């Protein structure tokens, strides 16, 4: 099948590449000529494990190509996927900014030839598909098309695995023709008995927001329980294991830390709240999850400050991990963006290391931070080390070496990677989240 993907960001590039791996012929189109040039040269602009190899393979086998030209690529496509950004509105009101969606739609519409399914792959509020259809009809009244919703459920750092072996595929359609096209695109997964959940378009649009809001709520819940554990001397790691073994609850997303971040949870929870308000409803549980997440980051600043004796002024802090989660270079809404400036403002010196995120971090963090080439270099003569992101290479550090290199052996483990007893036996002052 011939597919055109509009947008070569995280979702567009991963989705387009994986569709090519299925055997479809995919052209990824973007207005950013520099990005397209790099992709054509085999340079993948984002870090996602295995993506560069998969891109190179499918380009070599002539199933994947990149272009800045819409015309023929849209005209020859059986399905056109819209995978452009939908960030929070610049007004700061939490609404999703759909300007990129509508701009892409206006550019696509004149080139439609023959029956085409326009698929919203971006995360969009309920009703967006109807507006996309309206824009196409106004721009090209003769177009033969349907609009469908096909939300993505990709985890950064595990996106290829998630795409190739998903829990489910959700397709929102209002015509048999559109359903047949989407089922044809995903036929390789159907053969693996992956559930295809067919819904109306509005339900599919809402499903992505609801899923992310639920997971964000689960994270905020365990973070609140962790703070309670800190207060009463309980162990949140054991508690999470105890409740996570209940099949009704599940163990995923029950890992306490400095709060959720990334490109999805922060903006999607806010956008869902705004959708509810527009329809005269309130989502008090989601609202609470958002409030808890914001407070969690501030409480992590206090946790670090208390571990330093009540003040970070004049102290050198080694920070290990900057991205919002491991196996990505994504810094969007990372807890580090809130926590590190607060420490710097009170007179701390910060030396930071991240395996993939340091260049991105420079766009978001004050330029007074020193970036170093290894975790061990960050810890030299440090008064404390803060484990911010649980990259695998931080899970088995030479703690003896680190302790000898530090000025004061203080470790604040915001991801509960290490065992408190072991660290204390080695002479460290250890602070975790929700366990003493």
Quick structural summary:
The protein is an alpha/beta fold. The chain is 44% helix and 14% strand.
Q: What strand order characterises the main sheet?
A: 3-2-1-4-5-6
The assigned structural class equals: alpha/beta
Which class of the largest domain in CATH terms? Alpha Beta
Helix content: 40-55%
| CATH architecture classification name of the largest domain | 3-Layer(aba) Sandwich
Distance between the termini: 57 Å
Largest sheet: 6 strands, parallel
> How many strands?
14
Can you give the mean pLDDT?
Answer: 95
Proportion of strand residues: 5-15%
* Count of discrete alpha- or pi-helical segments spanning 4 or more residues: 18
> So what's the overall shape?
elongated
| CATH fold type of the largest domain | Rossmann fold
| Low-pLDDT regions | none
Q: How big is the Rg?
A: 23 Å
CATH superfamily of the largest domain: NAD(P)-binding Rossmann-like Domain
Protein architecture, described:
- With 436 residues, the protein is of the alpha/beta class.
- The chain has 2 domains: 198 residues, Rossmann fold (3-Layer(aba) Sandwich); 167 residues, Rossmann fold (3-Layer(aba) Sandwich), CATH 3.40.50.
- The protein has 18 helices and 14 strands.
- Strands 3-2-1-4-5-6 form a 6-stranded parallel sheet, with helices on both faces.
- α1 packs across α3.
- The longest helix is centred in the middle third of the chain and has 32 residues.
- It starts with a strand and ends in a 5-residue tail after the last strand.
- The model has no long low-confidence stretch (mean pLDDT 95).
């Amino acid at each position: 099948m011939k597919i055109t993907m509009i947008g070569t960001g995280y979702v567009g590039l991963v989705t387009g590449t994986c569709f090519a791996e299925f055997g479809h012929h995919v052209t990824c189109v973007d207005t950013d000529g520099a990005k397209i040039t790099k992709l054509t040269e085999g340079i993948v602009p984002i870090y996602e494990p295995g993506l560069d190899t998969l891109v190179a393979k499918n380009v070599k086998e002539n199933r994947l190509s990149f272009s800045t030209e819409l015309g023929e690529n849209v005209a020859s496509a059986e399905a056109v996927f819209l995978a452009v950004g939908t960030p929070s509105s610049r007004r700061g009101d939490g609404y999703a900014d759909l300007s990129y969606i509508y701009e892409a739609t206006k550019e696509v519409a004149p080139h439609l030839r023959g029956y085409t399914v326009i698929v919203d792959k971006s995360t969009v509020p309920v009703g967006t598909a109807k507006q996309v259809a309206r824009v196409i009809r106004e721009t090209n009244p003769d177009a033969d098309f349907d609009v469908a919703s096909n939300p993505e459920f990709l985890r950064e750092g595990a996106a290829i695995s998630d795409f190739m072996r998903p829990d489910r595929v959700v397709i929102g359609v209002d015509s048999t023709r559109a359903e047949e096209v989407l089922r044809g695109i995903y036929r390789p997964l159907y053969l693996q008995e992956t559930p295809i959940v067919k819904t109306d378009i509005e339900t599919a649009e809402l499903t992505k927001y609801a899923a992310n809001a639920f997971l964000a709520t689960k994270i905020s819940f365990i973070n609140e329980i962790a703070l309670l554990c800190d207060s009463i001397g309980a162990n949140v790691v054991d508690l999470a294991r105890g409740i996570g073994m209940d099949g009704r609850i599940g163990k995923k997303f029950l890992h306490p830390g400095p709060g959720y971040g990334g490109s999805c949870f922060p903006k999607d929870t806010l956008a869902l709240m705004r959708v509810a308000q527009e329809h005269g409803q309130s989502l008090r549980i989601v609202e609470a999850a958002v409030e808890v997440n914001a407070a969690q980051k501030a409480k992590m600043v206090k946790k670090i400050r208390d571990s330093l004796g009540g003040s970070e002024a004049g102290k050198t802090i080694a920070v290990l991990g900057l991205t919002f989660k491991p196996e990505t270079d994504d810094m969007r809404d990372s807890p580090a963006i809130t926590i590190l400036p607060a420490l710097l403002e009170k007179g701390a010196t910060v030396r930071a290391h991240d395996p993939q995120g340091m260049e991105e971090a420079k766009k978001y963090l004050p330029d007074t931070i020193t970036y170093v080439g290894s975790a061990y270099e960050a810890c030299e003569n440090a008064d404390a080390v803060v484990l911010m992101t649980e990259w695998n290479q931080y899970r088995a550090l030479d703690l003896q070496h680190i302790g000898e290199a530090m000025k004061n052996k203080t470790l604040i483990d915001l991801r509960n990677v290490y065992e408190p007893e072991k660290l204390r036996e080695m002479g460290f002052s250890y602070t975790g989240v929700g366990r003493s």
